[in-house]
Amino acid sequence: MEQLLSVLIGVLVASSVYLMLARNLLRFLFGLILLSNAANLTIFVAGRLTPGAPPLVPDGLDAPIGDVANALPQALVLTAIVIGFGLFAFALILAFRAYQSLGTLNTDEMRVAEPKEN
Amino acid sequence: MSWYLTLPLVIPFVASIIAYLLRSSPLGGWVSIIGSGLGLIASIALMAVVLDAGVVAGQMGNWPAPFGITLVADLLSAVMVLITAITGFAVAIYALGDITERQAKLGYHALFQILLAGVTGAFLTGDLFNLYVWFEVMLIASFGLLILNGGKEQIDGGVKYVALNLISTILFLTGIGLLYGMTGTLNFADLALKVEEVENQGLLTVVAMMFMVAFGVKAAVFPLFFWLPAAYHTPSFSVSAVFAGLLTKVGVYALIRMFTMVFDHDIGFTHTVLLWVACFTMVIGVLGAAAQSDFRKILSFHIISQIGYMILGLALMTPLAIVGAVFYLVHHIIVKANLFLIAGIAKRLTGGTDVYQIGGLYKSAPFLAILFLIPAFSLAGFPPLSGFWAKYIIVKATLDLEMWFVAFIALAVGLMTIYSMTKIWAEAFWKPHPGGIEPELKALTNKAAQIIPVAGLAVLTIIIGLNPEPFVIFAERTTEQLLDPTAYIAAVLGVTS
Hints:
The complex is a heterodimer of chains A (118) and B (497). With 118 residues, chain A is mainly alpha-helical. Helix content of chain A is 62%, strand content 0%. Chain A has a single domain (2-50, 70-107), classed as Helix Hairpins. Chain A starts with a helix and ends in a 16-residue tail after the last helix. Chain B has 497 residues and is mostly helical. In chain B, helix 1 runs antiparallel to helix 2 (27-53), helix 11 packs antiparallel against helix 14 (319-350) and helix 13 (295-316) runs antiparallel to helix 18 (404-430). Chain B is globular and about 70 Å long. At the A-B interface, helix 2 and helix 3 of A face helix 6 and helix 7 of B. Chain B: Keywords: Cell membrane, Membrane, Transmembrane, Transmembrane helix. Chain B: InterPro entries: CPA3_Na-H_Antiporter_D, NADH_UbQ_OxRdtase, ND/Mrp_TM. Chain B: This is Multisubunit sodium/proton antiporter MrpD subunit.
């Protein structure tokens, strides 16, 4: 399972790099969200994939019985997904505003704030 | 949970909510000032506690470390929180004369307070994943502040700023995942212990490099700095002042924290990379500045070049060099924020930011000229101002290691800094205004609100410059804590309530 997920992460990163190298801002953003998903999967795999029981502590005990899944990476990934979602929403709106006010999504043509070319 | 650790975080959040509710009224700006003022008091209290106790730690929700989230303040954290509060307070006052009604209505003051909370949180946290969360808080607030004006320039700069910072964030997150996979912990103190037990030390170096890139983007080091000069000259002056002072320094702080406490297993490799990065950052930054003519663009490139000095201090990794890096960090925040505030006043007096198209400030506003000279000379490293001691310690550290060439670069970059400062001085202050305008300070609206923070920060620069000894002693104590994290680890892992 780890190997399979590692390959998947590799594919995600490769396609996201391909997308991010495009001049189109929207493609860049799509690449970005793929990359953030790859990062989330990395955390998930790094926490070891265990086919264990849910990490619940029975009544009256201090620790769960037997092998249980690692809950921490799931909590981390959830947090990262939420934050990433918020940032991505902002970035999408920003791209939309950029298209409205600059009239282009081609990053090569976005030079308003750059020094003038001679 | 100790009040002195949480108050510097709670105050800006509360202030931000109140400021948001009052965004349409002129009271919003005052809420921001009061909030920052209270935050300043809270961080002075924190500083007093830390000076007394060494390291203080508190566990959020009473989950014992390393399982819960730890807030911890050692001397470095405490001084960074304090300097953040000072800068925040100065900029909050300055905002009265700088922020338009429309910007206030769009929530400037609320976003500003959230930014301060994010920066403070990043300095106070003792947990790697929590650091990521604070980075995000800071980032989203800075996005909002950057594009608040909504003009073409801001959107254009904003796109580049957002894109490159998001990539660095994802790298940071991946690094966290891999480090967690290797060590099973995210707590700084616990990490410092566990990294020694990692079997594959080579893999650890790979992860260390991921963190170096991620924090390097935030700190704007060569070759990862491109978002900074693309964005920092576009927003309001108070926004770029607080960005210039604080945001890149969070990256530097994170680098110092990680590469002294956690990643000290292969100094020969990681810190050599840092050394090269530092040299290139210093040189490229100062050369970039020499080519610019916009007031704020010159200053933006100087941020990059000055970051190089701090990274240089970290890269040398001798006690004296770290002392220099810490001293530099504190001095730089004050001076750089101040210069951006002055750029704002100059813009309002003369009507422009391109130094070739403005002028006459020395004749008509001599007081402003003096206020400019103090941070400008300090930045370039003139005695007896704060920048002289900062540069002196760093250069002394390189000479002690007999790295003549590095010392030469550090000194040459200082010289080039004078060149840029002279350019601003000669063009914006010395020569008469090409349009014949004789700008007077009296013409400013809310003059006191703009001059007082600038003067206050200049006085701080002079105080550090004339009386550096207590600050150096403080930096030495900070360095001891960084290089020998026993006290830090004991405070975090020993306290269970």
